[in-house]
Design goal:
The protein is α+β, with helices and mostly antiparallel strands and 171 residues long. 29% of the residues lie in helices and 32% in strands. The protein has a nine-stranded mixed β-sheet. A hairpin with a 2-residue loop joins strand 4 and strand 5. The longest helix has 25 residues. The model has no long low-confidence stretch (mean pLDDT 84).
Length: 171
């Protein structure tokens, strides 16, 4: 029986029970809801970070989400994969995911990252940047990672997603 159902039963039966019993049940429900909310609020904190990527003398700063579900690794080097918006990828490389394979200058730095999920299989296109820095707005540390473009997602208010393993190394 859920708390909401108990409240409905108590409210409909309020004429048959003393007021102090009704008030006690309401207070207990409120306290339980408050405690449960505090417990789940701590576990649901959104973790974010700031990322700076340098590629062929271009520097792009991003605000990214730390994602424990991002387990992508580039098959050749084993480097973690950071997924970013197409617009940020374009600023970095000068091309989109659709035109990346047509750019002969970038072919040697292009990586293919296969992804398998419950929603199906996908192939991401990425690049190996000269440098990746992750951290806060004021302090960032260098990391080794592959930057891949994700066309199908807008990442809410973020510019991309970083694997949790990169964030844990930083801390």
């Amino acid at each position: 029986v859920e708390i909401g159902q108990i409240l409905i039963i108590v409210i409909t039966q309020a004429k048959k029970i003393p007021f102090y019993v009704f008030a006690t049940v309401v207070i207990l429900c409120a306290v339980t809801a408050y405690i449960t909310g505090r417990i789940f609020a701590k576990s649901a904190d959104i973790k974010d970070a700031y990322l700076t990527v340098i590629f062929e003398e271009k520097k792009v700063d991003m605000h990214v989400l730390i994602d424990s579900g991002n387990l992508l690794h580039e098959p050749l080097s084993g480097a973690p994969v950071i997924l970013i918006k197409n617009e940020k990828f374009r600023k970095l490389t000068g091309c989109t995911s659709k035109t990346l394979l047509e750019n002969e200058r970038l072919l040697s730095k292009t990586r293919f990252i296969p992804a398998h999920s419950a929603g199906g299989d996908a192939m991401f296109y990425g690049i190996v940047p000269e440098q990746v820095y992750i951290g806060t707005k004021k302090e960032k540390v260098p990391m080794k990672a592959v930057i891949a473009v994700c066309d199908n997602t807008d990442f809410a208010q973020f510019d991309g997603v970083v694997p949790l393993c990169l964030y844990e190394i930083k801390n």
